[in-house]
Amino acid sequence: MATKNKKYFQKEHSKLIFTILALAVFGFVLVVAKPYLNAILLAIIVAYIVQPIYKFLTQKLNTKTVSASLLSTALIILFTLIIGVALGIAVINIALLISEQVNNLKLDSSTATHYLQDGTDWINQKMYKFNLPIEITIQEVIDNLQSSLSGLLNNVLSTVSSISSFSVDAFFNLMIFYGLTFVIIPKFDKIVSFIKQIIPFEEEITSLYIKRTLETAKAMVWGMLIIAAGQSLLAGLVLYFLGTPYTLLIMLLVALFSFIPLLGTGIVILPIAGMYILNGQILQGLVLALAQIIVIGNIDTILRAKLIPKDVRMSIFISFIAIFGGLSIWGIWGLIYGPVIFMLLLTTIEVTNKYYLPSKTKK
Which pLDDT tens digit goes with each residue over 308-319? Predict the structure, then answer.
């Protein structure tokens, strides 16, 4: 009985030394796990997102814990594999299609050619007026367009090929993501409870930080997926109305590029509008360009306002800094990390005003 009642860490500075030791161990673990840190963090976020599915299976259907976790993970695997394969096929097919169309561009007597001729004549007149020995021809414009787009498409194809080749590093990242998701799903509530115990703040403050962090990450992941689907469907409707071939493939490509804020879908839609105009179908090209600028490109603003909970919303200027700052540092992962970090800052400001400063005044 004496052993059970024994108290630990009673010696002087023992808690301080243990804290330093624990932080050092944690730091070394981060260094070792750094190559797979994105997969680990994504597994935590996805485990949080699928908690409703897991709890439904365990509580409503009386499914065993392991089976519920396995089923939830299987759904994630199926979802990611379908998206990955579909987008890979779409990028390759669209790149080959546009490459073929660009290589077949030629001068004819279309209205677009006359507009291009008038434009080049105007530029040449201005050059001559300023005594600049430069003359632009339509053929040079077409050749430069073909060269630029061919280089861009080759880069896209090589990137997709490297992804589809499935490197060893990518394989390990994927396996770690799936494995950790399976492990974390049934233990998620216990992990959150453990974090609350080790953080030396009041439970209300700790819960606020954890909730804001998880909700922001969840909103960004769900937001990216739903916005991608919304922009893809809208683009598909416009393309179908205009009679554009390979609409389904273009929709998949729009979904892929929608993860790039503001300009993402325009990278796909505007070149297609340009192809319409170059081929003399000016009305179709203008309709598609306007649809992109006015509707498709702005739907993310509307949907994001609806998808993000009120307590984790940020002003548009802060969101802009968080998203693009995150993109510049972490690439595509910055779409999640940037907003989460800024939400932690806003939560810290709120905690300071609501809890810290009032308690300081009372003293």
Answer: 666 667 777 787
